[in-house]
Amino acid sequence: ACLLLTSVAPVLADESGSGNQNGGNNDKDWTYDSNSYNGKNTYYYYMENHKEAAYPKREIAVDVTNFRVIQPDFAGVQVDTKLYSDKEGSSQGVDIEAKGEKVVFTVEIPETGLYGIELNYFPLASSSSQIMFGVQIDGEVPFTEANSCVLSRVFTNQAIETDEYGDDLRPQSVQTPQWRKQFLFDKTGVSGVLHFYFEKGTH
Questions:
Q1: Mean per-residue pLDDT for 102-112?
Q2: Which CA distances in Å does 159 have to 3, 4, 61, 127, 172?
Q3: Residue 139 in contact with residue 28, Cβ under 8 Å?
Q4: N or C: which end of the chain has fewer CB within 10 A?
């Protein structure tokens, strides 16, 4: 994933609600089905199944320093997720860098309902592509789109230069990492902020 994470804070907001989650991935693996985006596993049907659920007006902060890591299934990957202190202006959090790791967080939900998941993160400058990861709740991927959540990076254009003819050259875009807060959405962006259904209790 290549990011620093300081909090997972589900926050309600009408239809861009709040939530809690077992961040990253969990114990069970998800098998991608190319037909899933048109089937009953989609976010559309997930929300249809929970259309009577409430959007609790509360925020629930997740302690990301309390986590466990599940070893990737494929060989040659070293578990690299760890706690950090005083890094990139943050006093403490979790550093997630290895691809394929499953990082599990625990959260106590005081009220059943639909929640959105907001992350406070710092994208490390290890790649120019979006950070993509999957989310599972209690070991299950709740809907297809939850397996392709993305976090954005920040880029800044350098100063415009001219060529020998005096014409402006297209400025280069340079990655400028900074702390960001973002609700989860999938790579298509079609569904907007994703909501996750949680029953009252520990997840």
A1: 89
A2: 28, 29, 40, 22, 8
A3: yes
A4: C
